Amino acid sequence: MYYKSRPYRLFYAINIVILSLVSILCLIPLIHVLALSFSSGLAVETNQVSLWPIGFNLDSYSRTFADGAFLEALTNSVFRVVLGVSLGMLVTILTAYPLSKMDGGGLKGGKLIAWYFVFTMLFNGGLIPNYILIQKLHLMDSIWALVLPGALSIYNMILMLNFFRTIPKELEEASLIDGAGHLTTLFRIYIPVSLPSIATIALFVTVGSWNAWFDGLIYMHKENWPLSTLLQTMISAPDLSQKSVSESEIANLTERSLRAAKIFIGALPILLVYPFLQRFFVKGIVVGAVKG
């Protein structure tokens, strides 16, 4: 077999080495930020910290979790992700299912509708019209301003559509013969066998919702910012005042260590969620992308 040949084994070994090096390069910045968050203020300010904490302490984290604005932003982000993923997956599935029937006359005008969706991937109204639309709909400073505009991702919908098209039509026909309607067929047949694609798209939506910061900046008041918006403004315009810092904290607490702790906490939820969905990721991408 070809995978037992010497050239293939060499190619495989080189791939492992290259991907391992790339993985290490991706992990180094995160490890450095984690080390900064656990280090003393003196070590951080004198640039002594590399990949291991110096002067280990938890003052940055205790200070971060005592910050009401940070906790509020964290809560806002969690609520946004839960609502965004729930609504996004529902809309994506309900759009992809009928469009998957456009072949063979199952949905009249289905191809035209599909091309309409593709057109919106290439052209959009732009920032100012979107802002005016959100304002006219009275969604400003509302969680819906963060969720509704991106509820349906056309890219995700196409992945879901193509996955649905790989499901044997005999399953649907058997369901319809037994008296089930389209909604019953969708939720009892299609969704259970589409878990890899659903998990993949859910991961996309989760990461996108968690990391999005610009919409929070323009649509929300400061007290209702999601965490990514708060972190972005904190990094671009840091507050160097360190108000109400006790004398005992001064040696262990600096603006850089505080920012490092907040950045790591902001990245932690995605780091925890990804391993549970990773096993579906490759299968969902490949199957959802190859169908013509």
From TrEMBL:
Please give, as recorded in its UniProt entry, the membrane topology of this protein.
Multi-pass membrane protein
Coiled-coil portions: none
Sorted alphabetically, which keywords does the UniProt record give?
Cell membrane, Membrane, Transmembrane, Transmembrane helix, Transport
Give the ABC transmembrane type-1 domain ranges: 74-277
Q: Where in the cell is it found?
A: Cell membrane
The record's section on InterPro entries has:
MetI-like, MetI-like_sf
Q: Which family does it belong to?
A: Belongs to the binding-protein-dependent transport system permease family.
UniProt protein name = Putative aldouronate transport system permease protein
